[in-house]
Amino acid sequence: MNALYDLPAPAKLNLFLHITGRRADGYHLLQSVFMLIDWCDTLHVERRSDGLITREDLTTPLPADDLILRAARALQSASQTAAGAHIGIAKQVPAQAGMGGGSSDAATCLLALNHLWGLHLPLWKLEQIGLALGADVPFFLRGRNAWVEGIGEEITPIALPPGRFAVVKPAVGLDTRLIFAAPDLQRATPAAIISGFAAHSGAEASFGFDFGHNDLQPVAQRLCPAVTEAIEWLGHQGLEARMTGSGSSVFAAMPHDTNLVEAPSGWQVRKCSNLAVHPLVGWAV
């Protein structure tokens, strides 16, 4: 059988995240910079000729109907292909961490099956399918660090300097829905502009840590004390940390390599590098 193996699905960090308003349908409007990092899941994808779509969990068990299966079925329906697939997922990016792991898995699945099934659908069509699955999926499909607006569909590529980051996922996760439903969530941060961020993210690799903030972080810290504990843990080591996405992971830029002390039991800690582009960039045009 034709097979594609070891396809990466990299995580992302939000260098900042502002909520600038809310649409009539309830979706929140945001501004953020999404940055790809080298903490990745791996998808093993094999073509099936019987039209079935199956998934095998190679590490962490996933929900029965996760974004990978939903992405595969959505692409199969949109293309009306008779082909199927078996997808093995080696999950490494933690769930409920604000790192976009599920959306990245869905994007890699769409890119892989578009290639494996010989569909040759253009990127804009894959983005259309992806946006219906999750607001972050189009970012991973485009595969470049970006200034992101709207509900996540307005994507402007930006260049970021190379850098190293300490990324910490406490033992507990956070449900995004609880944060966005919180009555005390800040939803009216004034709109920023790309040039304002660029002025704070230059060659000294500060990555804009002196620009903006994460509007979700105060609510997340109230709901999940482990977020505060992780920020303070990095702070005690001389690193300025903030939460990524809707948490519960936090991260800090490391201008110099830092020997991190042993983390509390159950925490996941990694030293990550950012990526200039997604490893699968160019798989769809």
Helices and strands in order, then pairings?
Blueprint: E1 3-22, E2 28-48, E3 53-57, H1 67-79, E4 84-90, H2 101-116, H3 123-133, H4 137-142, E5 146-150, E6 154-157, E7 164-169, H5 176-180, H6 194-198, H7 217-223, H8 225-235, E8 241-243, E9 250-253, E10 268-273
Helix pairs in contact: 1-2, 1-3, 7-8
Would you write up a description of this structure?
- The protein has 285 residues and is α+β, with helices and mostly antiparallel strands.
- Helix content is 26%, strand content 28%.
- α1 runs parallel beside α2, α1 crosses α3 and α7 crosses α8.
- The longest helix is centred in the middle third of the chain and has 16 residues.
Roughly what percent helix? 25-40%
- Sheet with the most strands? 6 strands, mixed
Average pLDDT metric? 94
Following the backbone from N to C, one meets helices and strands in this order, namely EEEHEHHHEEEHHHHEEE
Structural class: alpha+beta
Taking pLDDT < 50 over at least 5 consecutive residues as the criterion, the unreliable ranges are none
Q: What amount of the residues lies in strands?
A: 25-35%
Radius of gyration: 19 Å
Shape annotation:
globular
Helix count equals: 8
Number of strands: 10
Termini gap: 26 Å
